[in-house]
Design goal:
CATH topology of the largest domain: SH3 type barrels
CATH superfamily of the largest domain: Ferrous iron transport protein A (FeoA)
Distance between the termini: 40 Å
Number of domains: 3
CATH architecture of the largest domain: Roll
Number of helices: 8
Structural class: alpha+beta
Number of strands: 8
Strand content: 15-25%
Order of helices and strands: HHHEEHHHEEHEEEHE
CATH class of the largest domain: Mainly Beta
Largest sheet: 6 strands, antiparallel
Length: about 210
């Protein structure tokens, strides 16, 4: 149930109606499985399902989702900064551990990390009170051409794609400049540091940056 509530929250961050199909794709499960779980979560008043309009989290459902997301993002940062995991390795490990993190361990990890606000991918870490910093930035293809921008976050969780983005230097905090946007949904020419790269629209849509 926690995985479903977390998935609904993540899809809400992306915008648009949260349909059964989107939840199934997010979790890698079948449509009937999603339908059954949505019915159960609706009965438990953790989300509300309106036919043909999708689902929304209730206050109780959002509280649970935020707690799991907090565990996950703290674990990702702990794995990266303390145990030396790369940013393309932390997601799957955090998925295995997030449901078993005690309040005491959560507090110790947070203190050890210096009370961080963002995970290795730039996603905001919810506070213990359930407060989340607003998401910032626009995707690379939406940036003004020629204006240096600071990368805020990477929303892609595919290890291979994250590894490639890392090879290009597209980490949170890095400065990127959109040099050229090819027409007809073509690729982008960008500059990261003193190097230029060509990347496709799909990869560009996974990186959010803000103009300083």
């Amino acid at each position: 149930m926690e995985d479903y509530l977390k998935a609904v929250y993540r899809l809400r961050e992306q915008g648009g109606s949260i349909t059964t199909q989107r939840i199934a794709e997010e979790l890698g499960v079948t449509g009937p499985s999603v339908t059954n779980m949505i019915k159960r979560l609706d009965e438990l008043h953790l989300l509300e399902h309106t036919r043909y309009q999708g689902v929304v989290l209730t206050t109780a459902g959002e509280k649970i989702a935020l707690e799991v997301i907090r565990h996950h993002r703290l674990l990702e940062l702990y794995l990266a900064e303390t145990l030396g995991y790369s940013w393309d390795e932390v997601h799957e490990e955090a998925e295995r551990l997030e449901h078993h993190l005690s309040d005491e361990m959560e507090a110790r990890i947070e203190a050890t990390l210096g009370f961080p606000t963002h995970d290795p991918h730039g996603d905001p870490i919810p506070s213990a009170e359930g407060i989340v910093q607003p998401l910032a930035g626009a995707t690379l293809d939406q940036l003004p051409i020629g204006a240096p921008a600071r990368i805020e976050r990477a929303v892609d969780r595919d290890p291979d794609r994250l590894r490639y983005l890392g090879e290009l230097g597209l980490y949170p905090g890095a400065i990127v400049t959109l040099l050229e946007l090819m027409p007809f949904e073509g690729p982008l020419r960008i500059q990261v540091g003193d190097k230029e790269h060509i990347i496709g629209r799909s990869l560009a849509s996974a990186i959010y940056a803000s103009v300083d």
